[in-house]
């Protein structure tokens, strides 16, 4: 990792947060197969492993916001943009992290 990032991290001046790929509606998998539920899960796992491979421990050095369960089967207007309740829950989690 970058030396300046490590320096800031040691001083508690930086918090690295990664927001995982959400679930799209299965109805969109045919049009957007690269964003299918299965591919999104694989992508999220690869990112987690990438953090580990460069020495960042998930939950300690990097916070992984995995909203898969929040977005899988959530109501959406078009299969990818979620209704207000999902977005409010996401915003509440981000604000909580910012405050702590």
Biggest sheet statistics: 2 strands, parallel
Instruction: Indicate the radius of gyration in whole angstroms.
Output: 16 Å
The low-confidence parts are none
Task: Summarize model confidence as the mean pLDDT.
Answer: 88
With strands numbered from the N-terminus, the spatial order across the biggest sheet is 1-2
Percentage of residues assigned to helices: 40-55%
The strand count comes to: 2
Q: Tell me the overall shape.
A: flat
Strand/helix succession: HEHEHH
Short overview:
The chain is mainly alpha-helical and 100 residues long. It has helices spanning 3-10, 37-53, 68-71, 84-99; strands at residues 16-19, 62-65. The protein has a two-stranded parallel sheet.
Task: Please give the structural blueprint.
Blueprint: H1 3-10, E1 16-19, H2 37-53, E2 62-65, H3 68-71, H4 84-99
Parallel strand pairs: 1-2
Structure overview:
The structure is a single chain. 45% of the residues lie in helices and 8% in strands. It has 100 residues and is mainly alpha-helical. Strand 1, helix 2 (37-53) and strand 2 (62-65) form a beta-alpha-beta unit. It starts with a helix and ends with a helix. The mean pLDDT is 88.
């Amino acid at each position: 990792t970058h030396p300046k990032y490590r320096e800031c991290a040691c001083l508690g001046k930086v918090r690295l947060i990664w927001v995982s790929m959400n679930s799209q509606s299965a109805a969109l998998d045919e049009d957007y197969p690269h964003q299918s539920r299965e591919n999104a899960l694989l992508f999220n796992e690869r990112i987690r492993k990438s953090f580990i491979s460069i020495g960042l421990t998930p939950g300690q050095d990097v916070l992984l916001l995995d909203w898969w369960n929040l977005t899988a089967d959530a109501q959406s207007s078009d299969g990818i943009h979620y209704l207000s309740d999902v977005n409010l829950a996401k915003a509440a989690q981000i604000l909580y992290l910012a405050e702590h």
